[in-house]
Specification:
InterPro entries: FAM3, ILEI/PANDER_dom. With 305 residues, the chain is of the alpha+beta class. The chain is 25% helix and 20% strand.
């Protein structure tokens, strides 16, 4: 019969011990406190005789252990430890196989995706597209973009930009102290000539008058100052520039920042920026001895009266 996971068999002589020698039952002793036969005083008994004696006293043959019997002998804590160790080994080996089979880039991307689940989406505005002559907004396709910037201080040179082309500036190497002038053919949008005229040293007012008057009809004229554009500027030169529409040329002073847009034999729209000036003032100057730069920019229609 089966009890507590072990199999016990009744004491039947032949089923318990096969082929053991016979002995005298009368010579057997009693059983000790553990149910085992005590040897007789005068001799040694055989295994078969011992078995017969146990059977008389209701004893049973020692059970035959099974695998389930061994498991039942382990405590619950031991079983948990064994199971945990086995599960850990399996998990480690599974992770090792995944690490070998899956590329590192895929693992990094997966980890980043997991971390990003709880994060708020970040909305990034696209970088603004650069416009012609660094305008904030683009000019219509049927216009010319322009930007005039006076010099500022000793090292910030004047610039004249037309249709995103630098006509006069430090990079082009044709900017200098005095009044810088660029002439552009209005019909083609191509530059005709550029020149600067020193108004601090030398007598260059006459040369500047000739340069302005040599501009072809239907020309755009752009003028900017760098450093000093007034010290040797003569009255006849002021009259020529004033005749082209300037309202500030007679007010220009030593180291004034001045820019001016005009046209020859053309009528420009009234709403576009044409002229700006900033005088040197020791109390307000941005640079030591020089005022801040001034600039104008805009879009000139390609069809004018």
């Amino acid at each position: 019969m089966e009890q507590e996971g072990r199999l016990e068999r009744p004491c039947t002589g032949e089923s318990a011990l096969q082929g053991q020698g016979a002995g005298s039952v009368e010579d057997l002793g009693g059983l000790d406190q553990h149910g085992r036969p005590e040897p007789p005083v005068g001799g040694v008994i055989s295994p078969r005789s011992a078995l017969q004696t146990w059977c008389r006293k209701g004893a049973r043959v020692a059970p035959v252990p099974r695998a389930s019997t061994i498991v039942s002998c382990l405590s619950p804590g031991t079983l948990k430890a064994v199971f945990f160790l086995f599960a850990s080994i399996c998990a480690w080996y599974s992770g090792y196989l995944l690490a070998e089979l899956i590329p590192e880039v895929s693992l990094s991307s997966a980890a980043y995706s997991i971390r990003s689940i709880g994060e708020r989406p970040v909305l990034k505005a696209p970088a603004p597209k650069r416009q012609k002559c660094d305008h904030w907004t683009p000019c219509p396709s049927d216009t010319y973009a322009y930007r005039l910037l006076s010099g500022g201080g000793r090292d910030k040179y004047a610039k004249i930009c037309f249709e995103d082309e630098l006509l006069i500036g430090e990079k082009t190497g044709n900017v200098g102290r005095g009044i810088n002038i660029a002439i552009v053919n209005y019909m083609t949008g191509k530059v005709t000539a550029t020149q600067y005229f020193d108004m601090f040293e030398g007598d260059n007012s006459g040369q500047m008058i000739n340069f302005i008057q040599s501009a072809p009809s239907k020309s755009l004229l752009f003028m900017v100052t760098h450093d000093d554009g007034a010290s040797r500027l003569k009255e006849d030169a002021k009259k020529v520039i004033e005749g082209l529409g300037s309202k500030h040329i007679r007010n220009i002073q030593f180291r004034s920042s001045w820019v001016f847009l005009t046209a020859k034999d053309l009528q420009l729209p009234e709403e576009i920026q044409r002229e700006s000036i900033n005088h040197s003032d020791s109390a307000r100057n941005r640079y030591s001895g020089w005022p801040a730069e001034v600039q104008i920019e805009g879009c000139i229609p390609k069809k004018t009266s």
